[in-house]
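Troubleshooting: if your tokenizer reports a length mismatch, compare your output against this known-good record of 240 residues.
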Amino acid sequence: MGSTRLPGKVLRTVNGRTLLDIQLERIKSSKWIKQIVVATSILEQDQPIADLCAKLGVPCFRGSETNVLERFSQAARQFGASTIVRLTADCPLIDPAIIDQTIALFQKEQVDYAANTVPPETSRFPDGSDVEVFSAAALERAHQEATDPKDREHVTFYFWKQDHGFKTTQLLQPDNWSAYRLTVDYPEDLLVVEYLLNRLAEKKTFGHIPELIAELDHQPEIRKANAQHFFGEGWNKPAK
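Known-good structure output:
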């Protein structure tokens, strides 16, 4: 809830539903995920997230705001997870098909960590379709070893930003969609997501990533707003 660029973004609403609710519903279409846990902070400002989870019947774990690596480790232990799929709550249009492809890649290659948008330099997926999969053993090792505050805040940096001996892999695809933006960090992002959700409702379709890309391509003005964040039109603010 404490985002500086779009305060309260995960509980912003589209047609009366919060973005977090919409994301959770989409995640439930994954064939591989066995349990969903929302991991938020112990700060009072994040109480509305816990309240929404209680309303939706989704487990909510609360831990440190800044030491998110510790929060994930504690949540994994409490819920007995052997494999963790990390999905950030600013990705309301997450595609369960890509979730399952990333999990399948993780299992096939027997790695410690698999992702689709990491490393970002070689990603071929839109920002906002982020999926990270890692073993509980790798998570616990990172929790025990990582000392840099950035590694502890960003959870998975320790797996892939430096060579710490983890075996990693990246999900790739023929089309390069990395210049598209489906995440929600700015007010303009919310307008794009709202447009896409309304189009999906009109067409009565789920909206996997290829369809979302096609919708953006068919609307130059929406696409322009979507692209502003990539070409420096006033959106080079410090990240949070």
